[in-house]
Structure formats: structure tokens, C-alpha cells
Amino acid sequence: MLLETGRIVAIEPEGLWVETIQRSACGSCQAQKGCGHSMLAKWGASASRLWVLLDGRDSAQYQLGDQVQIGVPDEVIANGSLFVYMVPLLAMIASTFIAHQQNLGDGLTALCAFAGLILGAIIVRWCSYQIRFDSRLQPILIDEKTKTQAIQTCALE
């Protein structure tokens, strides 16, 4: 599970808006010397806001500015990355193949490849919009109870 520390910027009855500075993954990544995100994080931290489900917790126990720890399961990151990169790529390859089968010229084949890439990006955007409230794909708030469950799960694997 990828753990990140953030600051609460808004409180809602069902969840919290948490602003994170994305640095923790860079410190443990093997490709940090060749990664553009790592270099940008060193010059100026990139902040992002995430909506975190309270999952039955009382929102009254949190205050604006509190530091909280959130976690994203590894399989969500891996599957999401695979989906986001592969769908546009496969759409581009498929549209290029179809254009080639139709004996279109090189310029039209390149345009079809670009159109396939854009179509793949639109499909990813539409799918992400459809699953935006799926609780299995949301970051979770980490507390002592959650840490204990995670340790037990890792021990069973």
C-alpha cells in the first residue's frame, strides 16, 4: 500500500479533502534518477487534492489543517496505470492497423493513429468518470485500526 501524509483542506460528512505533497514514492523508487517527476518534486513540490472516504468515522473528530495519513492499495495503482496507458496505446495500434488494411497513405495512417490515441484517451476519461465513486478505488484514511488490519493481511500473504 502506498502511504502518503496530507493536510485536511475541507471536511464533508462522507469524506475529507486532503492536500498531499507527492514525495514519498520518489524516495523508494528505483528510477528516481531518470524520472522527470522526481526532479520536479525536488525543485517545487507538486500538491494534489484527494477526496478520502471517512468509511463510517465521525467527521467531527477532524479539523481543517490536521495532518492525516492516507493509503492507496498497490493493486489500484498497478491496475489503474495499466488501464490509463494501455487503452490509448491499443486504440492507436488498432486504428493504425485498420488504416493500413484500407491501404490509406502514410499521412492518413498517421492521422488515424493520432485519432485512435485521442479516442483511447476519451475512453479512459469516460471510464474514470463512471467509476469515480467506487469505494474500492478510493484512497483510504489510515489509522491504528487500519494499520493493524494491513499488517494482518500482509502476514497472511
TrEMBL record:
Protein name: Transcriptional regulator
Membrane-spanning segments: 82-101, 107-127
Pfam annotation, one family: RseC_MucC
Species name: Cellvibrio zantedeschiae
Domain of life: Bacteria
Signal peptide boundaries: none
PANTHER family, per database record: PROTEIN RSEC
UniProtKB keywords: Membrane, Transmembrane, Transmembrane helix
Keyword Repeat: no
Keyword Transmembrane on entry: yes
